[in-house]
Amino acid sequence: MPNYFFRNYVERARVRGEEVNPEDETYAYADTQDEAALVWALVQLRLGRRHFNIVSEALKRPLAPAEEGALQFVTTIWCVFIVKPRLYQLQIEGFKRYFVPGFATDGDKQRQLQEGVRARFMTTPLEDVDWRKVDLGFFFDETILERLPVPEPA
Q1: Which of 30-34, 76-80, 110-114 holds the top average pLDDT?
Q2: In the predicted structure, residue 45 carries a pLDDT above the cut 80
Q3: Strands, E, within 41-117: which ranges?
Q4: Residue spans per domain, the chain
Q5: What mean pLDDT, rounded, does the chain reach?
Q6: Which of 23, 68, 103, 133 has the greatest count of CB atoms below 10 A from its CB?
């Protein structure tokens, strides 16, 4: 089940006892292939690969240690394990709602992601991110932020 590599990673972490954000647990995408493709693209960007390649074969093999570390970073900014301030969570939710549907085959979305990621996304250690103050603009520029359907706070 290569398309589930991301959700399998989350489930393994849950089994190991890591706390999962309750909001992430209740959110399901209709097509896990698109979600996996987006997460894989973010992993590659985190590794400094500005021109990523979404190849389903890459999702079938075990991750190299550097890829596993990048995946941990992505799941953290994705709000899977650590609950973030409400504004950030709303922004990342808008990010997911915009990018996930169709991402595996949508060249325009892939290009937007490649061009809109900030260098900080690739270089900032997780422990240096002040989650109490950060917003999505820390990792992505306005060309991405202006496209996001950010829901109003409840």
Answers
A1: 110-114
A2: yes
A3: none
A4: 2-145
A5: 78
A6: 103
Beta bridge partners of 140: 117
Q: Partners of 117 in the beta sheet?
A: 140
Using an 8 Å Cβ cutoff, are 43 and 71 in contact?
Answer: yes
Geometric angle at alpha carbon 114, from 119 and 134, rounded to 5°: 45
First-to-last alpha carbon distance for the chain, in angstroms, is 36
Buried b (16+ CB within 10 A) or exposed e, 87-105: ebbbbbbbbbebbbbebbe
Closest CA to 24 of 76, 73, 69, 68: 76
d(CA 120, CA 26): 29
What pLDDT sits at residue 41? 92
Distance (Å, whole) CA 148 – CA 95? 6
